[in-house]
């Protein structure tokens, strides 16, 4: 992010703010919930904590408003109120602050983000092309200094001006529109001085070209615009990726539900239309999108998505079923225990929003530097102008020196200090199997001192496997004939080990117990110890038992293999000073087994999504900064709320969207991620220190009037080159230790 991304209170502004207040009436989009009225608006132009408090405060001050909450990542403002408050007054209160509003259209949200990115990318391309061409002309002017005729120099400056004018008019729109929008409301943001600097640099250059002066700043104006657009484009890309997490979860929950009427007739409704107490039919293979309590039917239920439990759970009347669980075998009928807005999926969605909100308030190193740098530079330029006027210089010369001060302190080194390090680090991580998804991810990962791992699919492969055991081939063949008729994960692991073959005759599946069928004229059972009459007290792991007629049942054991690189990765993370623990939704015995094999002393089992978030909160309260590693929907809330997070490439889309980084299979990339992040943070701090030293030398040169275009170009190019070389050094150091 560059200086143009912050207003006077650290408040960013987005591309193309509204030119006029929104005049559409949002009243048709008001929803009635009991005695309350609710409205969701899309807010344009708000991107930081100052924006959030300003908007929420203005709306909360309206009569009857019970709550007003703005999500900065997706621009969603949720308002609830009682009484006869007109919806138009809510949108007007936001518009009066200089932000745009419209009723939220969830279907077009991603398209709007993509359109913004495309506009910024086009503007950035035009500015970059113009900068390159004007610099070629400027080199000719500098190279011919003292020998070039006045007419030739004036002609080259004029051509530069003809290139710069349409460039500023087109590529400068994000800044000019934002500045005009707030100025006409008698407010200001950081785009105001940026626009002023661009206009002054161009205007002074035109005046100097007309009078045949030696100095013109068309190249510096276009270069500044180019660098600012790079920062704004990267920021827009990060915001769209953050928005995709909430959008992916919304797609998961936006399914139809079969509601049963009193007379037994069924009706398909949207999930949001289901109310507590409604009778729900959950067919085999269907995913529950509301929490429910089972009234009739028995079935195996896969809750790995929401609890992390690696094996299906038997569900019967009286038991509860969480939203997100999949019914595997038989129909279930139950009653909704909560509306979709109060379900587990909704809770996770709120965690995602809270996590995005928390991260949006994180001030990156670049933001902190810019918040100090920009006011100082512009104040110095103003004082320079006034000082030269008082010293007796004419208006033209005072303006020229003041603009020179702005130009020579063009934040090239500052603008590149963080982005160039991020690009080099991101490239190194990409080659190491890690994809960064957040602009400030490196800085937050570098600050982490504790790691929480999910178990299933993260520390383990997440797929049951038949263990090496004394199992007769004949027993395996019989068990496989029964297992081929089931979708149970253990049955699939069994058939995978046995290979293709026949299916037993008359196979029946009994939910929660197992399978029964006929093999070679003998009735056989495959399933739990209770179902087969075996004694399972001696083994607590994942097992199936095979009973052939009256023979003694045979135990078939399974295990979830640990990731091959897990032990080495955890050892390296500890050497880097990070504490390690496991928080999993799986069974205590399964978690204890993995923790013991990896030497992890602290672990928690049977943890719900809320339990994981509570553990994060407790650690943060004790001063820890947590790096969360997980792959399931039950991890999504914790991934979003952690100080930083990462998800494996095979994780659920929602979890990948909520994470700061996605890594390839295995855990080997994680130590590389932490090492690279820490070196990147150090390199950024070094670059900012150099940028400060550069300005300490450059500003006095500009103030005393010796900042010619040649001096400015050499200084700016030299500072940018040093920053880039320092970033490349980071890459080389990382390669040596990888």
Question: Main attributes?
Answer:
alpha+beta; Calcium-transporting ATPase, cytoplasmic transduction domain A; Rossmann fold; seven-stranded mixed β-sheet; six-stranded antiparallel β-sheet; 25 helices; 27 strands; 51% helix; disordered N terminus
What does this structure look like?
By secondary structure, this protein is α+β, with helices and mostly antiparallel strands. The strands form five sheets. A seven-stranded mixed β-sheet has the order 15-27-26-25-16-23-24, with helices on both faces. It has a six-stranded antiparallel β-sheet with strand order 7-6-8-14-9-12, with no helix packed on it. A six-stranded antiparallel β-sheet has the order 17-22-21-20-19-18. The longest helix has 36 residues, at 218-253.
What percentage of amino acids are in beta strands?
15-25%
Strand order of the largest sheet: 15-27-26-25-16-23-24
Structural Rg: 32 Å
CATH architecture classification name of the domain at 423-460 and 562-680: 3-Layer(aba) Sandwich
Q: Separation of termini?
A: 29 Å
Helix content: 40-55%
| Biggest sheet architecture | 7 strands, mixed
Contiguous helical run count:
25
Choose one word for the global shape.
elongated
Q: What is the top-level CATH class of the domain at 423-460 and 562-680?
A: Alpha Beta
According to DSSP, the number of beta strands is 27
The assigned structural class equals alpha+beta
At CATH level 3, the topology of the domain at 423-460 and 562-680 is: Rossmann fold
Flag low-confidence runs: 1-23, 248-252
Average pLDDT, rounded to a whole number, is: 77
Any idea what the CATH superfamily of the domain at 423-460 and 562-680 is called?
Answer: HAD superfamily/HAD-like
